[in-house]
Design a protein that fits this description.
α4 links the parallel β6 and β7. α1 crosses α5. It contains six helices and seven strands. It is α/β, with parallel strands linked by helices and 161 residues long. The chain has one domain: Rossmann fold (3-Layer(aba) Sandwich). It is elongated, with a radius of gyration of 22 Å. The strands form two sheets. Strands 2-1-3-6-7 form a five-stranded parallel sheet, sandwiched between helices. Strands 4-5 form a two-stranded antiparallel sheet.
Length: 161
């Protein structure tokens, strides 16, 4: 089950978001302040989404996002916002680093769609380009050179001479 952290202070929004996410197969983890959010973030696997209110008990989404960046976490943060003007939305997404916003009046219509867009399974496989992961050993360099030589040829191991 995919875990989603909800950082919010509003009981009604927490109930609504938790119900929507649970119904669609997510495991919402509700926290109400920065300290609890930090504790939960440290337990998360890659691909988890954080839904944060612009302001919650004693802090803001910006402080949370700045902390995530400083600690090297790369979780997607969705900011739950009241009706903002376009310049405020740009500030939240560009300057703060939220990947997207959810308008509070439209939580029931936007939340699951946005979370689905950014949440990744805990079993996500990462694909690399065609390059090899570099190793320091002389043995590996020898293997890598052999692979590059063979790869540069037009040899087909299945063709008959």
């Amino acid at each position: 089950m995919k875990r989603i952290i909800i950082v919010d202070g509003s009981d009604s929004d927490i109930r609504l978001m938790s119900a929507l996410l649970t119904r669609t197969g997510y495991e919402p983890i509700v926290v109400r302040d920065m300290e609890a959010a930090q504790q939960e973030v440290m337990k998360l696997s890659p691909g988890t989404v954080i839904v944060s209110a612009m302001k919650f008990r004693g802090d803001t989404a910006r402080v949370l996002i700045d902390w995530l960046k400083a600690e090297g976490y790369k979780f997607h943060v969705l900011a739950a916002v009241d009706n903002l003007i376009p310049m405020e939305i740009i500030d939240v997404m560009c300057d703060w680093g939220a990947v997207n916003i959810i308008q509070r009046p439209a939580i029931d219509k936007q939340l699951v769609e946005m979370v689905d867009k950014y949440a990744k399974s805990e079993n996500v496989m990462f694909f690399l380009d065609n390059s090899l992961i570099r190793r320091k050993s002389a043995d590996f360099r020898c293997i890598e050179q052999s692979i590059e030589k063979i790869g540069a040829t037009n040899a087909n191991p299945h063709s008959k001479p």
